[in-house]
Design a protein that fits this description.
It is a single chain. With 667 residues, the protein is mainly alpha-helical. The protein has 28 helices and five strands. The chain has a five-stranded mixed sheet. Strand 4 and strand 5 form a beta hairpin. Helix 10 packs parallel to helix 24 and helix 19 crosses helix 20. About 2% of the residues have low confidence.
Length: 667
């Protein structure tokens, strides 16, 4: 049944995309991706009021959709996408020694990520606290619904499109095995879109492919692809939209608009790149803009609007009462940030060394200097053009010198910030020292230098009339996003949101990859950072003492999370609570609620109101209730005074057990 349920929407998506008769394989693949995502979102929404998001309900609905898609494809003459141009482009990339090696390295990276996505238990904190917890609650309820008494507003008020994909996987497999698959598929869609957009800007197959390969090596991209977070998923919609809008055919324009609209169902911050996408459509003319706008409204209606309507109904605000309205609590900062200081803080955080040691930084620096000088000398001897030889050498040295550039640039930003009265590090600093960790980083040193440098390069080329308005529009994505984001209150994780403008900047990377030597330098620097990041991730180390990440149990994985004591709590929970018991919970907002569902999602979790938790437990016929030790920990007194046994779950939670507790089976 799992294979059938997973296969039906995939086949439907490809039939729909093939029936569209789009002119390129890239557009067809992106259309199939959009069809798959919107299908799963719309079906889970439609079946939720009837509580039919079950294996039977999904199977019947998807079978009907497949029949309709097959009929449409048949009536359209059974078209299939042309593979000839794609084969030729792949041959050109694969047979070139440098780009072929880059392809092999990224294929290995994607293979490693897939092993983590399919085999490693969840231990990413955001995933545990609400992304997965609300999907598990929906699964036990039989559909998306307003979860009563959740630990945080995120459960009900955040756009659910990413978690609806997870919900489908939970129901199809009756387990959490595919929890990271939406993010992984989103990464693949982004790489296809970046390649396609670069080609449509006029770049050849090799630099276009290498632009996508380079993006895959950025820290955020590699790390998020194996989690249940939603930043990559959200970024896949602007990436697909830009590529399709650059295609320019009427149906591509409508689909590009639909992708932009659907993205709002994944994350509101995708709205910050809508001006760039609108400009790309406007550059095609009024009719093109009308088609894109119509598609955008349709995509928003199909996959994005519902959560905002529900927030408006229940809370009187599009964004609800919590969640996005309180984003950026700055209690840990010594200064109250404003837009300018927030802008500077985020730029400073983009300057990221990841996990590079001083020794690796030195080796890359020496390699960059040597390679740059060698290329400059060779070009000068061959062409006798001094300025051009310096530029050629600089293009090769840049990625290898990126860590040194980051160190220097961070110092400049820190000095300017302190002079401006809002220091980023040192006494009173809002951020702290330059990041040299995996989990606290951004895009890595190469990513930071390229993402901040390419907009400046394109602006210069545009002023020199050597870049067209399409390139300028994409180059504006990151600066505009930063300006809009800075209007929000500061918080330390804002850099995650930059994935959306980053994927719009990536089609411009070929401007830095004009020669094989430059591509080789980006390959060396990018592969070095990516390999260190994914293998030294403290939450999933390749050489961990407990074994490979995909061989860990849920408890072992949790002991590698931000709070290792959660692993001990999960072990005690598994011993003390019967496998299929319904469980009550009184938790604080930032606690890993998904752990209570169990490794195979066997526990239905009922969140109880803090002030009447004991009464709620009786109303739901519960025998087991997990209690926080935090702010809401006073709820434990209700159970102790009511004759329940309250015992510790390790040092993290408490467990209240009813006096005559049975197996607590949900039935």
């Amino acid at each position: 049944m799992a294979v059938v349920l997973l296969g039906l929407p995939v086949v439907t998506a490809f039939l729909v995309a093939a029936a569209a008769r789009l002119r390129s394989l890239v557009s067809t693949l992106l259309a199939a991706y959009l069809a798959l995502v919107v299908n799963l979102g719309a079906v889970t929404w439609a079946l939720s009021p009837l509580r039919l998001v079950t294996q039977g309900g999904l199977a019947a609905t998807e079978a009907l959709l497949l029949a309709a898609a097959a009929a449409g494809w048949w009536l359209r003459g059974r078209p299939l996408p042309s593979l000839g141009p794609a084969r030729a482009a792949l041959r050109e990339v694969a047979l070139d020694p440098v780009s072929g090696l880059f392809l092999a390295v990224v294929a290995a990276l994607l293979g490693y990520e897939l092993a983590l996505a399919l085999g490693a238990p969840a231990n990413n904190w955001d995933s545990l606290t609400y992304h997965l917890a609300r999907a598990a609650a929906w699964m036990h309820h039989g559909g998306v619904y307003e979860i009563p008494n959740p630990p945080s507003a995120n459960f009900n008020e955040f756009p659910p499109l990413a978690e609806q994909q997870i919900l489908y996987g939970f129901v199809a497999t009756r387990s959490g095995a595919l929890l990271a698959l939406p993010q992984y598929l989103a990464e693949l869609a982004i790489l296809v879109a970046v390649y396609g957009a670069a080609r449509r800007l006029g770049h050849g197959p090799r630099p276009s492919a290498c632009a996508a390969f380079l993006l895959a090596t950025f820290s955020f991209v590699a790390l998020q692809a194996t989690t249940a977070q939603n930043d990559l998923f959200a970024a896949s919609f602007p990436a697909a939209s830009a590529c399709l809008l650059l295609g320019g055919a009427p149906l591509e324009l409508a689909l590009g608009g639909a992708a932009a609209g659907a993205g709002l169902g994944a994350k509101p911050t995708t709205a910050f790149v809508l001006p760039v996408l609108a400009l790309l459509a406007l550059l095609r003319g009024r009719r093109a803009f009308g088609l894109a706008l119509g598609g955008g409204l349709a995509g928003f209606a199909a996959a994005g609007v519902w959560v905002y309507v529900l927030n408006l109904v229940h809370a009187g605000s599009l964004f609800g009462e919590g969640g996005w309205t309180t984003i950026g609590a700055s209690s840990q900062q010594s200064l109250e940030p404003g837009p300018l200081s927030t802008f500077v803080d985020v730029v400073y955080q983009v300057l990221d060394l990841s996990v590079l040691s001083d020794r690796v930084v030195s080796w890359l620096e020496l390699g960059g200097i040597a390679a740059g000088l060698a290329v400059s000398a060779a070009y000068a001897l061959r062409r006798r053009r001094l300025l051009r030889s310096v530029l050629e050498g600089g293009s090769v040295a840049l990625p290898l010198l990126a860590p040194v550039i980051v160190i220097g640039a961070s110092g400049v930003v820190a000095w300017l910030a302190r002079r401006g009265g809002f220091p980023v590090r040192g006494p009173g600093g809002n951020v702290g020292t330059l990041n040299r960790t995996v989990t606290g980083g951004a895009f890595g040193p190469v990513g930071g230098v390229v993402l901040l440098g390419v907009p400046l390069l394109v602006a210069g080329l545009w002023l020199a009339r050597r870049a067209d308005a399409r390139r300028l529009a994409l180059a504006l994505a990151l600066p505009l996003f930063l300006l809009l984001l800075a209007q929000a209150t500061y918080n330390w994780f804002l850099t995650r949101f930059l994935l959306s403008p980053a994927v719009l900047t990536a089609p411009l990377f070929p401007l830095l990859m004009r020669t094989r030597a430059a591509i080789a330098a980006y390959l060396v620097a990018g592969a070095t950072v990516a390999a260190l990041v994914v293998t030294r991730d403290p939450q999933r180390p390749l050489d961990g003492s407990s074994g490979r990440p995909w061989s860990l149990t849920q408890v072992e994985a949790l002991r590698l999370s931000d709070l290792p004591e959660v692993g001990d709590a999960a072990a005690a929970y598994a011993r003390l609570v019967p496998p299929h018991a319904c469980v009550g919970a009184v938790l604080d907002p930032n606690e890993p609620a998904f752990v209570l569902s169990g490794p195979r999602l066997g526990h239905r979790v009922e969140y109880l109101p803090v002030d009447r938790a004991l009464a709620g437990a009786y109303e739901h016929h519960l025998s087991y209730v997990v209690l926080t030790r935090g702010v809401n920990g006073w709820a434990a007194r209700q159970f102790a005074s009511g004759g329940w046994t309250v015992r510790p779950l390790g040092s993290y939670w408490r467990l209240a057990v009813a006096r005559f507790a049975g197996d607590g089976d949900c039935g």
